[in-house]
Amino acid sequence: MTTWLNMSLQDGASPIMEQLIFFHDHTLMIMLMIITTVMYMMTTLLWNKHTSRFMLEGQLIETTWTIAPAIILVFIAMPSLRLLYLMDEIHNPAMTLKAVGHQWYWSYEYSDFTKLEFDSYMIPQEENQASTFRLLDTDNRIVLPMNSPIRLVVTAADVLHSWTIPSLGVKTDATPGRLNQVSFSINHPGILYGQCSEICGANHSFMPITIESVSANQFINWVSSLSE
Question: Among its keywords, does the record have Metal-binding (predicted)?
């Protein structure tokens, strides 16, 4: 989760998020090189007192500053398009989770299991404990196995919502009457936090998302305990 004075992205908890962080750093380095070059040229022009009649027009430099940006854009576009296709790819899922947005809570259904569904509300501030996070923890967490491809199907029952987990690189709109799907895989065990990212009414800030990532054996035990 994000922390105080954190100036960078959250640590990636999925392969896609790690790739997004690499792409962010890659693009930032290109921007840094462009800014450095432009600042150097501007400083040189301001302080240089010499003039040259050969610099009044020059086809070579005009050709260079036309082609160079196109080449730079290719170096940005290629990894960007690759990531777009990877994010849209739905791999063979190990399980399917359905999320339904309501005002102002989430409902979850584990489609591969019989009658495994629950509502997830934010823990009220007066019930918070030392181990819980204000506005982020829920009474019923989503439990998912790590290192398994998960298909998430998202919809809404009333107004527009958005199911978002920043550390997974997942942000999917929940639209009434429509199903949106996304695929992700969690790299390691832990607790991941997110929130609704679409303004959906008065209590928009109070419908968090909490995922608990566990091993496959722990997930099977959790499902068995709910079925008893």
Answer: yes
Phi, psi of 213 (to 5 degrees): -95, 125
Half-sphere CA count of 183, side-chain side, radius 13 A: 16
> Which residue ranges form the domains of the chain, and what is each CATH number?
13-47+57-86 (1.10.287.90), 93-225 (2.60.40.420)
Report the SS3 class of residue 112.
Answer: coil
pLDDT digits (tens, 9 = 90+) for 8-54: 888 888 999 999 999 999 999 999 999 999 999 889 888 887 776 66
CA–CA distance, 143 with 140 (Å, rounded to integer): 9
pLDDT tens, residue by residue, 169-219? 999 999 999 999 999 999 999 999 999 998 888 888 899 999 999 999 999
Cis peptide before 104 (omega within 30 of 0): yes
- Three-point CA angle 131, 133, 136, nearest 5°: 140
